[in-house]
Design brief:
The complex is a heterodimer of chains A (about 400) and B (about 120).
Chain A: H1 3-40, H2 56-66, H3 77-93, H4 114-122, H5 125-135, H6 139-170, H7 175-184, H8 193-206, H9 218-221, H10 231-256, E1 262-264, E2 267-269, H11 271-276, H12 279-306, H13 312-343, H14 351-374, H15 379-384
Antiparallel strand pairs in A: 1-2
Helix pairs in contact in A: 1-10, 1-12, 2-10, 3-5, 3-10, 5-6, 6-8, 6-13, 8-10, 8-13, 10-12, 13-14
Chain B: H1 6-29, H2 36-39, H3 59-88, H4 93-116
Helix pairs in contact in B: 3-4
The chains are: A mainly alpha (about 400), B mainly alpha (about 120).
Amino acid sequence: MNPWMHYLLWPCIKFAIAITIVLTVVAGMTWIERRLLGLMQARLGPNRVGPQGLFQIIADPIKLLMKEDIMPSAAEKVVYVLGPMIPLLPAFLVFCLIPFGPPPAFAVTRVNVGLLLIVALTSTSVYGIILGGWASNNKYSLMGGLRSAAQMVSYEVPFGLSIVGVLMLCGSFDLVKIIEYQERHVWNLFPQLVAAFIFFVSMNAESNRTPFDLPEAESELVAGYHTEYSGMKFAFYMLSEYASMLVNSCLMTSLFLGGWTLSVGGYGVTTAALRSMGLLGGVIGAAIFFGKVMTLMLVYVWFRATFPRFRFDQLMDLGWKWMIPLALANIFVTGILILAAGTLKIGADTYWYGELALSIVGAAVLAFTLFLITRGRPAATVAARPTEPPKVIHASRVSEA
Amino acid sequence: MTHTFVPILLMLLFAVVVAGTILGLNSVIGRHQRNPSKLAPYESGVPLLDQNRKRMNVRFYQIAMLFILFDIEAAFLYPWAVIYRGASHGPSGLFLFTEMLLFIALLGVGYVYVWKKKAFDWK
């Protein structure tokens, strides 16, 4: 085959298709979210433009494009413009790497370190937020940017550690191989239940969604890091938030929910079965993938309607004191069970025992952790609260006390 | 295998061009009615009370330092995790496991120290 055709034209066509779908989903998601939130809060939501307000997704970008492009006089000009662009680029680059259907036709490119590259790219989006917050030269923006940086950085660690468990099971960075492993065995959700839980919580925190939307807590910080932004620059921040939600949902689908397959132990809708159907099979696979992704996106909206916002110290507590030890424990338990299976010569035929054991241990650990988290404040801090006012010692009498 | 990265580079250029174009378009066709008070830093509608760049809590930097420590730990775990299952059937399985256990234990000591120093508490 002509190499130009293979390396330039084909990826461009596939990327054009992928980005069209992604932009449609992202734009549609803003409408779905507002309508769904309206439904959940017993009000209507946008319903004026077009049937059911569906043309709102076209009207919004046009309106934002016509808005005044304000450059605050105090802002650092270059960084202020760069700020909204930086989180947008990785959010869109990542869609090159995600296999939406059976390879090679339904992934723009397949890289052997795909997962590593995705994690690296998505973690750069924090720069845009902190640079934008700093460059606006506004105290609310700066505070929102710093909070956002602290939050994303804190949840980056459990996010990265939860992937380790999946890597140990599947033994590859290639998302295609990870999905093919799951179709031969079972969705990673079950043997890696704890990792999936951590991943899910962290991905909510990473994309700054409720209950982790402290960077833009409007009752405290006006609008957080994008207080000073208007028009298309503001739209870029919104777009990158929704794009990162979509990226995280795609990652969760690929890592824990079996990607484009619907099979257990190699039976069901597998890659081979889809391949035998040709292009139609590929489209079915992509439809299954998007079905799973959209379910996760709806869970985001559902969370936003259900949970109140965390306090900042609670957020940090959850990230550093719960998620990280839990993720390390998950790696430890997975390691022990894989080692036991290897030493006892439990071969590839009887992998079920290992997966079953991991599932049971995972469910037990998760249930215990949730019990501990929801139990409220630990008894020690309650007991430590002084019952009588502390004795005040004057500074001149410290030596007597 | 480097050729598989070519599309990513292409898309980076594409994304930069598209983002730049849209931003440029916005500044051209958007409204142009500016005045000094509109361009002043936002302060909930009142004149600026004090300077914008105030001193920030040092804990933000502390968190950033801790992040580097633990994220590098995760980065070290990745290559180990990829080869672990393949090697666990052979004689080096126990060695690999013990090695990682030591690594995590060393970091665990630091983790406990940081916890006891109350670096995770926001009060």
